[in-house]
Amino acid sequence: MFLKSGKTIFFLKVFIPAFILMSCDTFLGNPETPPLPGERISILKLNQELAEDPNLSDLKISLPEPIQNQDWAQDGGAANHNMQHVTLPENLEKIWSIRVGQSANSERKFLTSPIVAYNRVYTLDPSLILSSIDATTGKFFWRIDLTTAGEQDDLFGGGLAVADNKIFITTPFAKIFALDALTGDLLWETAVQGPIKSSPVVVKDKLFAITIDNQLIALSTETGDKLWTHSAVSDSPGLLGGSTPAAEENTVIVPYNSGEVFALRSENGRILWSENMTVVNSTEDQTLLSSIRAKPVIDKDQVIVMSNNGILASIDLRRGVRLWDANIAGTQTPWVAGNFIYVISSNNELICLLREDGRIRWIQSLPVYEDEEERSTPISWFGPILAGDRLIITGSDGTALSISPYTGEILSQQIISDHMSVAPIVAENKLFFLDDRGRITSFQQPQ
Questions:
Q1: For the whole model, what pTM was predicted?
Q2: Domain limits of the chain?
Q3: How do strand 425-427 and strand 302-306 relate by DSSP bridges?
Q4: CATH numeric code, 41-444
Q5: Model confidence over 196-233: pLDDT tens digits?
């Protein structure tokens, strides 16, 4: 089974309303802004219906062996957002559940998944309450309010990352914090030029974060000192939240809401290459919403990037050459496993593609409405993650699906809890979910 409980195992469900434009964050582009470099793809090309490649019907899908991950230390699991295949027992039950913060509402939402390190779960609620919880028992170690008097209470977002016994927090109040991951003691605090709605990424001794006005900031993880910055077009519409850079060794991949993707040298910000994920209306030559909400994935010599407006692309990590692209739009981060890529499209399709050329092996249509007959209450889907030889996705209707990574067959379906706005995470063979009531729940194998 997918999830099983001593009585009834319930898996979780996730709520996330469709991502929406944040007019308070950015504005539509200035006509005088110079066009972005790179190829622009006509919207007419994107209207083509996706189809499985008939030449791949007999191709057997082989996946890497699952590896037990001790931590889920950054948003997306690791700095490169590439977790491949993690272990997870077949049968799971709820071990503990605890409320960690304020409930989300229509104005303030959970945008950040929990992270796990040092056998602790860390969460950040919409009011910027940071919690440290024992991953085994669900007991609090500490809770800290990161806001100060006078800060607007209508802002939300930010994110978490852990490295070298420090926890780093980005905030919508244009501040970045570093705390001792075990004690919660403040190590440093740095003011930046703009609000940050997404998580940071940490690699080696550097932290990278993107402000809502399209500026990448590089800080020293030891002191919080600003090392360098990089900017892209700043007057583009943005999706709720924002994306997070991906980093590996000496390269950081930066997705901006302008549709630009840059590869930069992590030590100095020097541009290695840039790519444009923009789609235009061929009749009016106007850029459609080009935000990139999905996190880029670095996998060996490739960078996998998906934009909201219709491009899933593989880019050569070193040369910046686009290796292939597919007419797939989405806001969820692609999951790479061996020679295959799994993505959820904005059309509520779970798709398996070949990593080498982007051809489609299979497509699984997902429910679009809670009431299909009335076509009311649209469902949003989040994920996937690949754990224990199954893909796990969650829906805004409270449904969790377990899906075969080999065929796309839905293996099981379960209703779990109330709405959720973030994807589940896996660490030490435990599954963690954070719902919009501010409750985190841990599932693991029955004892």
A1: 0.86
A2: 41-444
A3: unpaired
A4: 2.130.10.10
A5: 999 999 999 999 999 998 999 999 999 999 999 999 87
